[in-house]
From TrEMBL:
GO terms for biological process: regulation of DNA-templated transcription. The lineage of its organism: Bacteria, Bacillati, Actinomycetota, Actinomycetes, Propionibacteriales. It comes from Actinopolymorpha pittospori. SMART domains: HTH_LUXR. Signal peptide: none annotated. This is DNA-binding CsgD family transcriptional regulator. InterPro entries: AAA_16, P-loop_NTPase, Sig_transdc_resp-reg_C-effctor, Tscrpt_reg_LuxR_C, WH-like_DNA-bd_sf. One of its GO terms (molecular function) is adenylate cyclase activity. SUPFAM superfamilies: C-terminal effector domain of the bipartite response regulators (SSF46894), P-loop containing nucleoside triphosphate hydrolases (SSF52540). It comes from the Bacteria.
């Protein structure tokens, strides 16, 4: 079962509540209602009694069909009561009481789960029994399932649902189709290996995200190639299931739905009218019938576009038509589209190819590729470009579009292949420069540094041959980007300045903006020039948006987000949302999803909300379809970020799991894994393991060309925690810090080392500077205040109030944090005798963070984890962590006791 964790959690909570509960599950056929029930029943203990009955088509004439199905063949059922249930001479009330008696006798006093499946087919007596069972007490979960599209006002379930809503607190679960990510997870589960994105898209589009259809397509083909399987005809059994939806249609309506099936997934009303020759009234009547039957869906009111509820239905219908019939329909559609003018190039290309008119197909593919790239539909642009390349494999324009679209869609292997072919077939120097520009970026994205250097050298040789002008300026920008990405700051700025000068001389505004991005990004990497770089990037964003250069604008905003410095959280969040909008306009998947959620995590971290930061990264992992592609650089960064937050929170097992996943990443190079392994060993208190890791840490540092203040603070904090000797700490400080590390971060680390040496006055002064540095996040400043309080206590010339003041400031900064930083704060508070008196954390829930107190109040109100997740916009996993911490900190063992403690 995939994609139903939230619903399963809700049902599990209801079953364990110890009370009488009612849940109703709605969803289309095959969406997973029965599978969800099966998963729930598999989690129940042996103390539960389970009754499951299923209504069948035609059961409206068989009273109590669902109950009879549930008890059929079950031992211990009273035969007299069964006879009473079916006795037509008894009154309806007597028979209803007989049904209730059967249920009560079977269940007794035990906790029970009672399921009535397919209530849309249930008889009125079964519906009445379902309602009466809901009235009974005891620890019972009553579940009903139904298909909304098959409910009419004449069926018993319609009145049942209305009455249930008025009389009971019913939990309604609506099962939606699987998302692309869920489809990928299900395919991975079935095949036992990672699934290419193209296959995910193909199967998701083909099945509409219906898990039953997906499993039927895969049945017996688990080890086959997904690319080949995706093009195979439907299995006979599935095709028959789908065709039943239209088999009883009248011939005129069938003729229209067959034409619609050939025309494609989306069918405009006017195009269908032109192809079928149907009059408007006739077509409206036919479409209304098809919509009511659930075969077609109207896209938007007033848009006159329709699509098949399931692509497989369309496929099953069109498969019954002769090839000549299909070609004639495609030919008619193409003529209608060309006559109308201004039609979607994708539709023109599709019908031109099916009609065998390949010149028109290639022309439409070129036009459509450019169009879809301009509106940020990268994958659609790639599909069109590839359609055209099937006929014209050396077309430079199509190769350029395919390369750019594949890069935007994160299909990096495809992007590299197309870009190389584009470079080989470039007809002009301008095309050659653009191909090299993309190839350099792709070499960076796939961490082929040697390839990146070779390409950069090739660009430099080309620059020497080019006359001053647009091509030369653009080529210089390529070199500037390459140097910027490889942390060659001064060289990047030099090349960018040369490109900017040429762009200004020859009036090349777009080239000038691109060069300014590389210069601004390079400047932000150094503390001495970071303000200049951020100001430059902010100006570039405005100009790029004015020109509609959305890729450039999104990239620039990403640099701004990553180097926001001391920006206020609200300003930072505004920049982040702006980046996401521009990335979506450009079709840059990596910035619209992964970078966006990483940005949210950075904002939460800066504000000191650790739970929100972890939640943002977990959500990003769920929604970023590239996360499972281990060849992507960003997945490594994402995992490193998440590992660090787990280590901060003291979630050492989760950190260990995430670090383990990094070992197979080709991007987990240098200090990444050794540094995290060292950090984890320290936090586990394993001194021997930490010492054994040091050689790898120092070796990796020797190869690392840059230094980071946050990296130094994390590793030295961990080393102090585990108790490494002073000479080792000093060496770590020398290796981890250099002149380019930001002053505030370096000052904080120097304060930690001074304190370790017992230099209390020096450490206190440095801690105070760090605590007041706005460039540091709340957690780091809170730790600086804690360190300052410790040093003040160690100095005889410092009054107690100095330490108390620092503790109070630290408490405010760390109120939404947890883990080792909060533990250090509590140690100092205890030394000062403030553990039970300080206003920030005194009284009920003294050890709870602000977020935990918020969760605790909602737990006391009786909300389930799933309801909490929806209310607070966090993941169920994060809720579970909060609840576990709350129970532990309050010293209670159940959720009901939380309410007692809070009063």
């Amino acid at each position: 079962m995939v994609g139903r964790d939230r619903e399963l959690g809700q049902l599990t909570e209801l079953a364990a509540s110890g009370q009488s509960r009612v849940a109703v599950i709605a969803g289309e056929p095959g969406v997973g209602k029965t599978r969800l029930i099966q998963e729930l029943l598999a989690t129940l203990g042996s103390e539960y009694t389970v009754l499951v009955g299923t209504a069948e088509p035609g059961s409206l004439s068989r009273p109590y069909e669902v109950l009879l199905d549930a008890v059929d063949g079950r031992p211990g059922v009273d035969e007299f009561q069964l006879d009473s249930l079916a006795d037509p001479d008894r009154s309806p009330v007597e028979r209803l009481h007989a049904g209730l008696a059967i249920v009560d006798d079977f269940v007794g006093e035990r906790p029970a789960v009672i399921v009535f499946e397919d209530l849309h087919w249930a008889d009125s007596e079964s519906a009445a029994l379902f309602e009466r069972i809901a009235d009974t007490g005891g620890s019972r979960l009553l579940i009903g399932t139904y298909r909304p599209d098959e409910v009419t006002s004449r069926q018993p379930i319609a009145a049942l649902l209305a009455r249930l809503g008025r009389r009971y607190a019913v939990t309604h679960l609506g099962l939606e189709r699987l998302t692309e990510s869920d489809t990928a997870a299900l395919l991975t589960t079935i095949t036992g290996k990672p699934v290419p994105y193209r296959s995910v898209v193909a199967f998701h589009e083909r099945t509409g995200g219906n898990p039953f259809f997906l499993e039927e397509l895969m049945r017996g083909h688990e080890n086959d190639s997904l690319e080949v399987l995706g093009e195979q005809p439907l299995p006979w059994s599935l095709a028959e299931v789908l065709r039943r939806q239209v088999d009883e249609l009248q011939p005129p309506v069938r003729r229209i739905v067959e034409a619609a099936a050939v025309l494609g997934h989306r069918v405009p009303f006017d195009l269908l009218a032109a192809v079928t020759g149907a009059g408007e009234d006739e077509l409206i009547a036919a479409l209304r019938e098809l919509v009511v039957l659930g075969v077609l869906v109207e896209d938007q009111e007033g848009q006159d576009d329709f699509h098949f509820r399931h692509s497989l239905v369309r496929e099953a219908i069109s498969a019954r038509l002769l090839g000549r019939e299909q070609r004639r329909l495609h030919e008619a559609a193409l003529e209608a589209l060309l006559a109308a003018g201004g039609s979607d190039p994708a539709m023109v290309a599709l019908h031109a190819r099916a009609a065998g008119r390949y010149d028109e197909m290639v022309a439409a593919a070129r036009k459509g590729t450019a169009l879809y790239l301009s509106i940020g539909s990268a994958y659609q642009a790639l599909q069109l470009a590839e359609m055209g390349l099937e006929e014209e494999s050396d077309d430079a324009e199509l190769l350029a579009g395919a390369a750019q679209a594949a890069w935007l869609a994160d299909l990096l292997d495809d992007a590299i292949s197309y870009a190389r072919r584009w470079q080989d077939r470039a007809a002009t120097r301008s095309e050659q420069v653009e191909a090299l520009y993309l190839l350099v970026r792709l070499a960076w994205d796939t961490e082929e540094e040697a390839r990146m250097e070779a390409l950069t050298d090739e660009v430099e040789r080309l620059i020497a041959k080019l006359p001053p002008g647009a091509e030369q300026a653009r080529a210089m920008t390529v070199v500037a980007q390459s140097c910027m990405l490889r942390d060659q700051t001064e060289v990047a700025v030099s090349w960018a300045d040369r490109a900017i000068a040429l762009a200004e001389e020859f009036d090349l505004p777009r080239v000038r903006l691109a060069a300014l991005v590389e210069k601004g990004a390079a400047l932000t990497e150094r503390a001495s020039s970071s303000d200049e770089g951020r100001a430059l990037l902010a100006w570039v964003v405005d100009e790029a948006e004015k020109l509609g250069e959305w890729v450039l604008a999104a990239r620039t905003l990403n640099h701004v987000v990553q180097n926001a410095g001391a920006a206020e959280p609200a300003e930072h969040a505004e920049i982040l949302e702006r980046m996401r909008i521009d990335a979506e306009r450009a079709g840059i998947e990596s910035l619209a999803v992964a970078a966006y959620f990483q940005g949210r995590a950075r904002i939460a971290t800066r504000e000191g909300d650790l739970a929100a930061a972890i939640t943002a990264l977990e959500l990003g992992r769920e929604r970023d379809r590239g996360y499972e592609q281990r060849h992507l650089r960003r997945t490594c960064y994402h995992a490193v970020f998440l590992s660090g937050l787990y280590l901060e929170a003291g979630e050492l097992d989760l950190a260990d799991q995430t670090i383990e996943g990094l070992r197979s990443s080709p991007y987990a190079t240098g200090l990444i894994v050794p540094g995290l392994d060292f950090h984890l060993a320290c936090r586990r208190g394993d001194l021997a393991a930490a010492q054994s890791q040091l050689d790898q840490v120092f070796a990796a540092l020797a190869e690392q060309s840059w230094r980071s203040g946050s990296q130094a603070h994390d590793l030295i904090s961990a080393a102090l925690f585990v108790g490494l000797p002073l000479p080792t700490l000093d060496r770590m400080g020398e290796e981890l810090l250099d002149v380019h590390v930001w002053d505030a971060a370096r000052t904080l680390v120097e304060a930690q080392l001074a304190e370790a040496h017992g230099e209390w006055a020096k450490a206190l002064a440095s801690y105070r500077v760090a605590a007041d540095a706005p460039v540091l996040g709340a957690s780091a400043r809170g730790t600086a205040h804690v360190g300052a309080a410790r040093c003040a206590l160690a100095l005889t010339d410092q009054p107690r109030e100095v330490a108390v003041g620092h503790v109070q400031k630290a408490a405010r900064l760390l109120c939404q944090w947890r883990g080792w930083r909060v533990a250090q704060l509590e140690e100092v508070r205890a030394r000062l005798g403030l553990a039970a008196a300080d206003g920030a954390t005194a009284g009920v829930g003294a050890a709870l963070t602000r977020r935990e107190r918020q969760v605790a109040v909602l737990v006391a109100d009786g909300l389930t984890n799933a309801e909490l997740a929806r209310r607070l916009f966090i993941s169920p996993k994060t809720v579970a962590i909060h609840v576990s911490n709350i129970l532990h900190k309050l010293g209670v063992s159940s959720r009901t006791e939380v309410a007692d403690v809070l009063g």
